[in-house]
């Protein structure tokens, strides 16, 4: 590994904070309820007067090569109650050496009876790509993967709009949305 014969592809199972005041920091934290207005930088008062991003996010990893992700494509903008949504993303090795990439699937429930985490890991795939090679990475998402314990202590999914990211760690990627329909 030190001489470049092997390309590392491990990922962090935790997030590392930038400063101790961010403790505890974890990738699937709940929303604070305070609006995030990045354009209002003057006269701001925030929960923490420090960067809110982790130093190294959950799922972060190093490699001797680089990868590019296309925007995820959904099989449908709506997920029926008993259907499965297929999410496809093209991943390309843009570097000069072969490498393995851990492609991660995250989901966020926009409105629920309980506050939901900002992102939840719902799947991952490890792919080996040669320089310049591309592959389509496919995830299948069913209603059960969207379930949680609601305000009545019943485990299940609630209809609504969800954000989906297919990316290399918990803090990057471009979201696409779909709607889970009622039964």
Automatic annotation (TrEMBL):
<dbReference type="InterPro" id="IPR050288">
    <property type="entry name" value="Cellulose_deg_GH3"/>
</dbReference>
<dbReference type="InterPro" id="IPR036881">
    <property type="entry name" value="Glyco_hydro_3_C_sf"/>
</dbReference>
<comment type="similarity">
    <text>Belongs to the glycosyl hydrolase 3 family.</text>
</comment>
<dbReference type="Pfam" id="PF01915">
    <property type="entry name" value="Glyco_hydro_3_C"/>
</dbReference>
<keyword id="KW-0378">Hydrolase</keyword>
<dbReference type="GO" id="GO:0009251">
    <property type="term" value="P:glucan catabolic process"/>
</dbReference>
<dbReference type="GO" id="GO:0008422">
    <property type="term" value="F:beta-glucosidase activity"/>
</dbReference>
<feature type="domain" description="Fibronectin type III-like">
    <location>
        <begin position="101"/>
        <end position="170"/>
    </location>
</feature>
<dbReference type="InterPro" id="IPR026891">
    <property type="entry name" value="Fn3-like"/>
</dbReference>
<dbReference type="Pfam" id="PF14310">
    <property type="entry name" value="Fn3-like"/>
</dbReference>
<dbReference type="InterPro" id="IPR013783">
    <property type="entry name" value="Ig-like_fold"/>
</dbReference>
<dbReference type="InterPro" id="IPR002772">
    <property type="entry name" value="Glyco_hydro_3_C"/>
</dbReference>
<protein>
    <recommendedName>
        <fullName>Beta-D-glucoside glucohydrolase</fullName>
    </recommendedName>
</protein>
